[in-house]
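The methods section describes the discrete structure representation at length, but only in general terms. An entry of this sort, consisting of the sequence and the corresponding backbone structure tokens, reads as follows.
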Amino acid sequence: MLKASNKFINLHSCNFITMPTTIQVHDDVYKMLNILKKELKVESYNEVIRHLLRKSKRMDESEFGSMPGIAPFQREEIDRFD
């Protein structure tokens, strides 16, 4: 039987007074954060989470303009008048 265990990560908020906060994550999430921490070459889990949050808030190129998600325009041979 598989037993779920959790890891604790200390985070520091970016307010005027920084107070460490502890969050609980499962082992698999902790391992993924640890791998990403090494890949990003950062020193804290706070930086890893900040990177993930910023990345999730960025717009994809297809979301620019008035019709997000639409494929870029490409002409077809048949639509040209000669």
About this structure: The two ends are 72 Å apart (CA to CA). The longest strand covers residues 6-12. Strands lie at 6-12, 20-26.
